[in-house]
Amino acid sequence: MKSWIRSCQSQSCRTPTLGIFLWIVTVFGSLTMPQCLLAQTVESESEEARRPEEDHLRLGIDFYLTDELEIAIDEFREASRLQSGYADAHFNLGVALAKIGDLTGAIAQWSDAQRLDPQSMPTHYHISALVSYNYGVALLRKGQLDQAMDEWRAALHIQPDLAEAHYAEGLGYLLKGNTLQAIRKFQLALVGHQDWAIAHHQLGVAYYETRELELAKEEWRIALELDPELARTHVNIGLLRLLEGNVTSAVHAFQRAITLAPNLPEAHFNLGTAFYQQREWKAALQHLHIVLTLRPRFLAALQLTGATWSHLGHWSKAASTWREALHANPPEFESAKFRYNIGLALLMMGDLRGSIREFRHALTLRPEWAEAHYALASASVFGKDWRHASEHLQRVTELEPTWAHAFFSLGKVYYQMGSVTESIEALQRAIQLEPEFADASYHLGVTLRAQDRTKEAIEPLQQAARAGIEEAQSLLAMMYQNGSGVERNLPMAMLWWARLSFAETETEVGIQAKERLAQFRLQARDPHSSQAMRQEILAGFYLIRQSLRQQTGDLKVISSENNQGLGLQYLQHGRVREAIPLLIHEALALDESAHQELEHLYQNGVEGKLHAYDDRILRYFLERAQESNPQSCDFLEKAATHSGMPESGKITNALRTCRSQS
């Protein structure tokens, strides 16, 4: 609906009519209502001279149009004083009073105008309806939404097609959370006023609230076609794009909104949120700082600012930001969240007592909050206060009986308290709830083994080991090597050490596993080793190779039944990147064909896929040379004389080891 001032039908005889220009402050920001045509002055063309009151009226209109409202009001009052029955003067005085916020005075003037000249109101507006509508706006400003809604309904009872009242009711229903009614009201407001951009914007907001995102997007598209400078519409379009995962496009929309309205907090907040999602912490902080400068008690911005500082490791700044949020006196639910976050920050800073205090404060506000009980239990564990830790974890399991990790933590606390039976039961419950919970399986296995229930311990330990828990793999390897609680099985022990050594990240237990396997390779060719020991070790390396062949990957033509090793099969299918580590593992498991292939690949590479003299392959030969492996020593000796071979002190040292032990 366009804002306009009615012009004279004749250049000399018509006085322009003013319009109401009201702002409604809602959760959606300041929204401009359309102007309403109020009055017009009709003069006789044959009249020879204007009267003084008409001059004051014209002056008032001029001052109104230049926004000099106090002077305009004085002129309108003078016009009405000079002619007590001057309806247009009272009407326009009401308009000016409404614009400065004096709605009571405005209504009084409009009532006088209607009493003096009932015909002065244009036929498409009814004065009583307009008075009720504007009174509702005034009530909304005072926070009296229900009373405002009553006034807008009264206005529509008088004038059912009053678009402004339908629009205002739509806003009211949005504030009350009745989005379906809001949609209906905005649609009624748009009947006959399809060029009303802000109404399309608000209809989009209502659709968004009902998660009809495509309809929301369409309304916002129309709104921007009608008015490309609606900054809040750009913000909302950005939010949709953020939901769709198109962060780059969302950022552009938010930046466009900021260009149009540099001090729009919502635009900066959402842009900060987008940068936060992209882990661009400094950019996020820059815009969140602007938000808090514009709106210091914006709780969502304070929450996100603290979270951003925490990601940067600045826990003290995070805690300070969240404490600042508490000064804004947020609702209890929000206060509990801030107290909880402060507790986490203090715990990260090593302030155990302070963190416990904050978690307890959070629980006074939200006694049934499972996460806060869990956090308080964790802080108690740090302080070795097992009794309080167990009490709060028990409460967590009561509030969240399907939370597997709570039972896992409770099981560990019970073990520390010496309540072994309760510990086993809690760990078993965690595994029942989450069968793939490898850490729980490991701790259950260790606890059962400590109680001499080794047979029961094997299954959970194997489950944890298969899931990659290094401690479980190492423990099983030792148990199988020594026959501790299980039948001695050296090949099985070697298999678990091999799996430990395959890990991409090098850890202490992984290094120890590699050293053990290196010792077994030495023993396998040591003439002083017994035949039985050599056979057992060779069986172990065979088991490792067979285990590697079972990792057939996603290429169906690769088969574990093929006589070739898996690395060679991958290589033949052009899967060089996957082939190299497999060839190395197989060669370390005494696969001669894999060793020979590595020699070829190191010297020649694979065109377009692998450079000659690859560092990973060189590390394999150096490792074997340190074990005085004859093939590796001979290969490095020959390769070192090749003109294209890069010089390396490591190669020289490896060859020195080979010669000293030959």
How does the overall form come out from the CA principal axes? elongated
Helical amount: 55-70%
Low-confidence stretches: 1-48
- Whole-number average pLDDT? 85
Sheet-strand content, in percent, reads: under 5%
Number of helices: 34
- Radius of gyration (CA) equals 40 Å
Provide the spatial order of strands within the biggest beta sheet: 1-4
Distance between the termini: 97 Å
Please state the oligomeric state of the protein chains shown. Answer: single chain
User: Helix- and strand-based class?
Assistant: mainly alpha
Largest sheet: 2 strands, antiparallel
The number of E-state strands comes to 4
Short description:
By secondary structure, the chain is mainly α.
